[in-house]
Amino acid sequence: MHELEKLEEHVSFDGVQYKYRHESTTLDCSMTFSIYLPNKEKFPKPPLFWWLSGLTCTDDNFTHKAGAQKAAAKLGIAMIMPDTSPRGKDIADSPDYDLGQGAGFYINATQEPWAKHYKMYDYITKELSLLVQDQFELTGKEFISGHSMGGHGALVIGLRNPERFQSISAFAPIVNPSQVPWGIKAFGEYLGEDKQDWLKWDALELLKKHKGKNVPILIDQGEADNFYEKQLQPSKIESIAKEKDYPLTLRMQKGHDHSYYTIATFIEDHLNFHLNQSTSNS
Question: pTM here?
């Protein structure tokens, strides 16, 4: 049985937004996560939407800024928002915003000083998943989404687990981290110098080799995003998807930037996309 400490509870539209703390055995530290549950009487077995946030973020960014609760309540979707990395005074860190605490990249680190705690992939796909099933009885269909570093995480986790996730979406994702500055820096630190080890955490490389079930993907990218050309480059994964006849939709959004204003504008589209995929796959 998982022991949870409830930190917050807020009625929001026709549902409740919670924030919890628990001790993670995978990460060997205390972790927080947020979860939104729609009206249980109306939606006794809601599907679960996983949201992975970006660099420097916590689980609060999405819950406070995305405005997703209204649509989730209407559509009957539960939402879970993990933190972005292990945290604590004894956890390895860096003064750089794009490495260490707040920058876990949703992978399993193999190099010191990161390997002991930075196992966000296992934490999300195993420990936190079991906790959610156990504590909240959320055992139905699952979707995964995220922003920037979290978009990378959503694509990687979704593509590595096609039998689990019905659909994937992302806002401004890092689609090819092994070839851009953010990913090269993080992967070099977390995974070491052998770049072959990086490829299993790179969505573009995973899609190149993908076989089996196709999990539909929706990507929104702002044209005014300062990181678009140097760090994100979503057209690269769109090209691979076209070559493989893979169901990926890239929407370029005129005037939109890298901020949560963009996420708030299109989050209802993403929730509808996931629910529609779930219905069509029933």
Answer: 0.96
